Amino acid sequence: MKRLLVPALLLMASLAPVSCIVPSARTLPEEGGSTAYLRSFADATELGAYLRRGSDAGPLVAAHRGGATGGWPENALETFANTINDTPALLEVDVRGTADGRLVLIHDDSLSRTTSGDGIVAARTLPELRNLTLRAPDGSDTPYAIPTLEEALAWADGRAVLSLDLKDTADPAAVLEIIDRHGAGDRVIVITYDLDTYRSLYARAPDLVYAVPASTAAEVEALFAAETDLTRVVGWGGDDSVNDTVASALHERGIRLMLGTYETVDLQDARSARIAYGSLVAGGADIIATDRAALAARAIRESED
Asked: What pLDDT digit, counting tens, does each position of 233-245 carry?
């Protein structure tokens, strides 16, 4: 979740707890792959209950842009599978609109950094985008394609929870319609960046789980006064450090606090980063949104041993 930065939240993702690999929700098989971190929830209510701070889930990790690393590109289904194959993590993904009204997963408004093409995403049709391939963080070209939101939701069914970061060209009403049409409330967290947007989306789809800004005491107070179902929210606390006042207020209501480490802890050497991830959780962070999901998950496990 990064405009202030969730997700993610949320943020977003397989939802096996970091502290306990055996989940309370159903574990589903996947032919030819690991089943350890596959997650399935009956509906958004069950997902929301799992995300409550008082549930049996330990601290969670959210893999930023799906866990892109090395030769695995951002926002690719193949990257998602690689991430959850060995790391318990939410999968945070980015949603943008195309020229022909479709929704695809890509972070930038430009194609040049992460694909074999150039130009603006919103100026291209889906068939045009289908002719492109994704480029990995290490600069290598891959055979992987830009997925649609529909394809991502279908892939995540029975596998993972996606934290949807809606970019400026993604029509929120269209996103909600697709989630509803696919019955995907059991596998999504919708990220919002201001209270007005949250209230607007909540009015349309009150049963979904949302990530909501909660980095200051004023934002938390406004959230509590919004007259929405607080059992279906995750609080986005921003970057760097835990605000004790915010954490305490959220925790009293059973709301998880998510923090992002993309521009801070993630840039440290591995030893320092492991210590910092553990310290954030000890200080009240319940979800760490990170570019180093595997390292963060391992650090949290070590800090709890």
From this structure: 999 999 879 999 9
